[in-house]
Write a structure and sequence with these properties.
Elements (H helix, E strand, L loop, with lengths): L1 H21 L13 E2 L4 E9 L16 E9 L2 E10 H6 L6 H31 L3 E2 L6 H17 L6 E5 L1 H11 L4 E7 L2 E8 L2 E5 L9 E3 L12 E3 L6 E7 L4 E12 L9 E13 L8 E5 L18 E2 L1
Parallel strand pairs: 5-15, 6-9
Antiparallel strand pairs: 1-2, 2-3, 3-16, 4-14, 6-12, 7-8, 8-9, 10-11, 12-15, 13-14
Helix pairs in contact: 1-3, 4-5
């Protein structure tokens, strides 16, 4: 039993590292480096602010300023999980293709990563809509795509975000930009989970191609139990619209994704059947502070929705400690 627990811990650590690298939004987790997490759904986010400059007095010297530091406790809204089991003989009969590690890795790649990406991007899209930092019914050609992207970058810059801007776009839109730039396409290095990855760039802004089913303004998370939702996962909201691209200042999103527990029960421990049993539980969420919401700009394929469904950024369970 001890070996199984040790294996589960190692597997959990490896899956967490792979999650950041596999996710197209893994770069967003860098901003959560100082977040405190001790298990469960709550995280503590450090907030530091100071007073601005004052006049220097040649007699009395410096004007005293105030430093304000506090931890803001937030609750992650997404508490997701699945349990899988497979017969003890399946391991041998599949020549060790079917193992706990293989099941968890496949599950994470095929379902967890796309869901977390779509959740993050859809909530950031809602911010762009709510702040009017967006264009709608946008259809591009090779000639107009690059100009539209450059104009949008300029708008985010004018909003005061002069650092690195990250751009998520569909494969179709990226192809239009590539054709417009032809041989002039440059690359930019981004660090994801400690690994440097070279991606195409425009004006020094990384262009991250993203599957279109993750580039929507809203998703519904299936509960895995209700009729029609047994397969779990996520689907596009009925009122959601599709994005061409979304520009996000690197310092804007605060994304947290924690594997709360991976449990592996061997056939001798499992009381229900002569089978291996694996449990996977994931907490995740994303936030944007009020003073950073103008660091997002999106281009949508359809008209502006008449009603924007509340995003994860509207978190009523916030308290200070």
């Amino acid at each position: 039993m001890a070996n199984t627990i040790q294996y589960a811990t190692i597997l959990q650590n490896n899956l967490d590292k792979k999650m950041v690298i596999s996710s197209v939004t893994g770069w967003m987790e860098a901003n959560a480096g100082q977040v405190i997490y001790n298990g469960g759904k709550e995280v503590k986010i450090p907030k530091l602010s100071t007073d601005g400059l004052g006049n220097y007095d040649r007699v009395h010297g410096y004007t005293n300023g105030s430093i304000n530091f506090e931890y803001e406790t937030r609750s992650m809204k997404c508490d997701r999980g699945r349990s899988f089991s497979f017969d003890a003989n399946d391991v041998d009969e599949t020549n060790y293709v079917l193992t706990a590690g293989a099941v968890m890795s496949t599950f994470q790649d095929e379902h967890v990563v796309p869901e977390v990406d779509a959740y993050r991007l859809s909530n950031l899209a809602k911010v762009a809509i709510s702040t009017d930092n967006a264009v709608y019914s946008a259809s591009y050609t090779k000639t107009t795509a690059l100009d539209a992207l450059k104009d949008s970058i300029t708008k985010v810059r004018e909003n005061g975000f002069t650092g690195k801007l990250m751009i998520h776009c569909t494969y179709d839109f990226k192809n239009l930009v590539s054709k417009a730039l032809a041989t002039q396409m440059t690359t930019e290095s981004i660090n994801v989970g400690g690994i440097n990855i070279d991606v195409p760039s425009v004006d020094g802004c990384p262009l991250i191609t993203t599957p279109s089913n993750r580039m929507v303004s809203g998703i519904t998370l299936n509960d895995g139990k209700t009729g029609g939702q047994e397969a779990g996962g996520f689907v596009k909201e009925s009122s959601a619209i599709d994005m061409n691209f979304i520009i996000i200042a690197q310092q804007v999103p605060l994304a947290v994704c924690k594997t709360d527990k991976i449990r592996i029960f061997d056939p001798e421990t499992n009381q229900d059947a002569n089978a291996w049993k694996t449990d996977y539980r994931k907490y995740h969420d994303i936030w944007v502070l009020d003073n950073k919401q103008n660091g997002i700009f999106a281009s949508f394929k359809q008209a502006k929705p008449s009603q924007v469904i509340a995003s994860a950024l509207d978190n009523p369970e916030t308290k200070h400690e």
